[in-house]
Amino acid sequence: RKTLLGELNGIKKVLEKNEKFLFLVPLVALANQIYNDFKSRYEPLGIKVAIKVGMPRINVGDEELVIIDDDITNADIIIATYEGFDVVLRTDFDLAPKNIGTIVIDEIQMLADEDRGYELEGLLGRLKMVYTNSQLICLSATIGNPDKIASNLGLKLINYMGRPVPLERHLILALSENDKLKSIVNLVKNESRYISNQGFKGQSIVFTNSR
User: pLDDT exceeding 90 applies to what percent of the chain?
Assistant: First the structure.
């Protein structure tokens, strides 16, 4: 997966050159997921992992996901949202981490988003100005014009078209919210019945307009 590509490059410089690793994502929930993964994987090795999302908690309905920003000054790996790290560069520059070896920007197709694209473009400019010697890796699984984006950002394009799991498209008509939820449950259950050659059950990702 694309996250692993960025992770391998970043952690290599952390271990071999003692350079920091910055991983930027568009969503708080995604930042929290990667933070927890990296924390469990690398902190037993003595590598400090920190998160910066710019907000103390997320309202997710009946339950509340509490995310507390860490002190990123001395962290080896920093997981942050675009906005969270942009605030550091614009308002708390003295607290911005130094000696960053690798910067990964996940979901670079957000540049085309009419609401947030200009913010990401501004962040990219500030990152290039502050971290002139850092390796910049931009990731996307859905971008439609990778040649143009790579050219505009001065990046070398690596375009991999292989897909281990074939895509299928189906249209399901749901007459109510309850029907929609039942359809989603059935789809997930059906996929979980498939067993891979390595013995893993099929997995599903459900996308929704609500975060």
Answer: 50
Alpha carbons 194 and 132: distance in angstroms, whole number: 47
- Compute the residue count for the chain: 211
> Whole-angstrom Cα distance, residue 53 to residue 31?
8
* CA–centroid distance for 106 within its chain: 5
- Kindly indicate the confidence band of residue 210, based on its pLDDT and cuts at 50, 70 and 90: low
- Residue with structure tokens 């271990």? 15
- 12-15 long-range CB contacts below 8 Å, 24 or more apart? 13/101, 13/102, 13/135, 14/47, 14/76, 14/77, 14/101, 15/47
Provide the whole-model pTM.
Answer: 0.80
pLDDT digits 0-9 by tens, 39-63: 999 999 999 999 998 765 555 555 5
Share of the chain above pLDDT 70, in %: 91
Distance from C-alpha of 105 to C-alpha of 76, rounded to nearest angstrom: 17
Helices 2-17 & 28-42, crossing angle to 10 degrees?
Answer: 50
Closest CA to 48 of 11, 79, 75, 22: 75
Cα(76)–Cα(166) distance, integer angstroms: 37
Which residues on adjacent β-strands are paired with residue 23?
79, 104
